[in-house]
Amino acid sequence: MRQAKRILGVIAVMTMLLLSLTACNSKSGAPAASGPDNSARQGWPQVLHYSVVPGESQEAIAKTFKPLVDDLSQALGMPVEFYIPTDYTALIEAMRTKKVDVAEFGPFSYIIANERSGAEAFAVGAKSPAEAFYQSLIIVPDESSAQTLDDLRGKKFLFVDPASTSGNLFPHVMLAKHFGLASAQEVDKIFSNVSFSGGHDASALAIAKGDADGAAVSSSNLKRYVDKGMLKESDYKVIAESDPIPIDPTTYRQDLPEDLKQKIKEFFLSYKNPTLFAEWGINGFFPIADSDYDMVRETARILNMSPEELLK
Questions:
Q1: Does 80 lie in the same domain as 113?
Q2: What's the pLDDT at 38?
């Protein structure tokens, strides 16, 4: 009997020791073999902030991108908030100060964001890789007597934004070449008045209303406005178009954790949303690299349009 009690006592002590060790391991944070990997999501922000360059009204932009933002949030398993900047420079600054993590830039604003804010291009939305290009168009009111760029001399002209590729950079190239000018700075002297509208939609609508004699706009944006019923093809006519321009890149901050960047990239390249894609006129997102925008950098260099000047 005594021997049996001793054995039971030993078993009880050993059980208590095992329970004690288990409790200590639990308090010390040692993961169980079947538990989650504590290294996952290390360095991830609490909320991911997504943004695009302002091409329409804030309400229209927020409504258009809501499905993508919601789907991205679900795919990453974290909150994703949509940030609407006031202009191109505000978006570049927001990424520089880490208030924006993922953003779609115009080609020219991208090369500034790459240099100033660490933006890294990884995807473009297009019908196909071969169609990942668009053009800068110079348009006039449909009832205008203007037929060529020469007819705009001495008239009122609208550019979009200093950092806009198709709304400022490439139109200056077109105009400088057409009029045989030595620099972009001389282009504005052709017109009686030059101003920035702040958005492709504002420029297009100004032409439709006859509030400007000419304007430079993106071909892809103009088509979208017509498809949406914001204006009609009979409201304007195109009198000049640029060479093909690489389309707007989707980017993320280079200093985001590599696993997060990989998941973001995987989401965009595999994303399917037929309704949204039909509205945007694309079939999906395709890979793009920073080097694809070297021709934009070269154009900016030729025109002596530096990031320093644009970000003042």
A1: yes
A2: 42
pLDDT at 204: 97
Average pLDDT in the 80-88 region? Answer: 91
Name residue, tokens 């509030």.
211
Q: Which of 245, 266, 282 is the last residue of a domain?
A: 245
Query: pLDDT for 110-124, tens place per residue?
Result: 999 999 999 999 999
Residue 81 lies in a domain: yes
User: Using CA atoms in the order 194, 200, 205, 210, what is the torsion angle rounded to 10 degrees?
Assistant: 20
Residue 282 and residue 192 share a domain: no
Q: What is the DSSP letter of 234?
A: G
Gyration radius of the chain's alpha carbons: 28
In a domain? residue 31? no
* Average pLDDT taken over every residue of the chain: 85
Distance of CA 253 to CAs 74, 113, 121, 177, 306, Å? Answer: 20, 10, 9, 36, 21
Q: Which of 243, 260, 206 is nearest to 80 (CA)?
A: 260
Range of 230's domain? 134-245
pTM over 0.85: no
